[in-house]
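Incident review: delayed structure delivery

Summary: a single-chain prediction request sat in the queue longer than the usual turnaround. Root cause was a stuck worker, restarted by the on-call engineer. No data loss occurred. The affected request and its eventual output are reproduced below so the record is complete for anyone auditing the incident later.

Affected input:
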Amino acid sequence: MTNSIVRLNPPTLPNAGEMGYSQISIVEPGRIAYISGQVAWQSNGAPVPEGLVEQMKIVSKNARAALDAVAAKPEHVVVARIYMVDLTAERLEELMPPFIATFDGAQPCVTGVGVEALAAPDLQVEMELVVRLPD
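Output delivered after worker restart:
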């Protein structure tokens, strides 16, 4: 079987691979899953932590649980979109290590969007995924 997702970082674009993501993902035909934005809400009802990094770790855990639910792995993620309240270069730098760790070395395409607010006032980050389901 050929690789269902081919990732590219052409030399005519900034090398996103050094940052942990890809500029381009080419996807073979197949089933696609769209995973709703995951936030730092937990199934056990625990309170949302105040810190951005702590929230991102829970968001990552929730995203991984969603991948498990559709029998997919991080390598099957085509696109990850991050929505962050008060997006700044400093906050993005703080967020990136736990965000990139979500993908176990796979480098999906990534888009970061600064937003004024999310679904609740205590939420700082949300991640949605597009996944090419394995055959």
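Verification: Residues 20 and 114 are 19 Å apart (CA to CA).
Action items: add queue-age alerting; document worker restart procedure.
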